[in-house]
Design goal:
Layout lengths: L1 E2 L4 H7 L5 E7 L6 H11 L38 H11 L4 E11 L9 E10 L3 E2 L3 E14 L2 E15 L26 H8 L4 E5 L5 E2 L14 E5 L3 E10 L11 E8 L4 E7 L11 E8 L5 E6 L4
Length: 311
């Protein structure tokens, strides 16, 4: 990433720093047990602190209590024009593409069912012009302070890149064109053992040695008892389709839509996301039995997938 010298546009963009993006916002619903339960089920988080009469909300739900949902904040609560003006200025300058880059959260106190959430947001910073692999543009950071009862509960920082896409070299076509490579998985110290197992045609599940809870995907610690110690068990390979989507995105190198992506519940009880093979994408159904297999995509990449039969 490189940084250009400040220019006239950047000086205009900087005038938005410190201006409000939302003021006096109020959550559409109080903190409530059903949403906490849905969140924990989706995340596979079984921490007992989130259930019972003294339950708290998972801290990572902080921003969710401020969201307006599909209908938005129809009463206009908290809405400010400064953020829209800033994005419009970037659009007019040719930075019309956008990608979310990262977010940061700080927690000051737990939220509990019944708490009413209020929030204010400010445009915290606009970066100088940056050149990235995606293209050239500006990073915009907003900071949202979330309160309940006038007391700070937490802070959420959200950062996007508004950019003009970089020009891509023409892609060779014809018999001499190289085959498109499927994107490589990110392998790090927390999941390396899983990928070592895949290389041996073994599907390994983490098991907490403190409480015995199985977990997937791989994590550095246990959600149930917080123990950092674990070993592994090998999945037998049987499972069922718990849920699925059919991808219809535009053509993309190494992918051939439409195709099915499923959330598979393994016989051991954990769930993982993978492709379904052996049947047309429109024949995949919830509850369909599937069996693990390993599919090779090129000389370097082999991935676990699940094969089903129409029967």
């Amino acid at each position: 990433m490189t940084e250009d010298r400040p220019d006239a546009l950047y000086e205009r963009l900087r005038t938005f720093e410190g201006r409000p993006a939302a003021t006096g916002g109020t959550g559409k619903d109080p903190v409530n047990a059903p949403m906490i339960r849905h969140w924990c089920e989706a995340m596979g988080d079984t921490n007992p602190a989130y259930t019972g009469p003294d339950a708290i909300a998972p801290p990572t739900m902080l921003q969710s209590w401020t969201m307006g949902g599909l209908s938005g904040h129809t009463d206009g609560t908290g809405r400010s024009t400064a953020y829209d003006e800033l994005l419009g200025l970037l659009d007019d300058a040719g930075f019309r593409s956008v990608v979310a880059t990262d977010c940061e959260q700080e927690y000051a106190r737990p939220l509990r069912p019944g708490d009413t959430v209020t929030f204010d947001a400010v445009i915290e910073s606009v970066s100088p012009r940056k050149t990235t692999r995606l293209g050239t543009g500006h990073f915009v950071t907003t900071r949202m302070d979330v309160r309940t009862g006038g007391e700070l509960a937490g802070t959420h920082r959200f950062r996007i890149l508004k950019y003009a896409p970089a020009r891509r070299p023409a892609t060779p076509t014809g018999p001499a064109a190289p085959a498109a490579r499927r994107p490589r998985p990110v392998v790090n110290r927390d999941n390396r053992g899983f990928w070592d197992g895949v290389a041996e045609h073994r599907l390994l599940i983490q098991r907490c040695t403190g409480c015995g809870m199985l977990r997937f995907p791989w994590l550095p610690g246990c959600n149930t008892c917080a123990s950092p110690d674990w070993d592994t068990v090998e999945a037998c390979g049987s499972g069922t389709v718990y849920s699925y989507v059919v991808m219809h995105h535009p053509p993309f190198p190494a992918f051939d839509p439409p195709y099915a992506v499923a959330l598979v519940e393994l016989a051991e009880g954990v769930r993982m996301i993978s492709n379904i093979t052996g049947v047309p994408y429109d024949k995949v159904r919830i509850g369909m039995p599937v069996q693990l297999e390993f599919l090779r995509f090129d000389d370097e990449l082999e991935l676990p997938v699940f094969r089903a039969s129409e029967a």
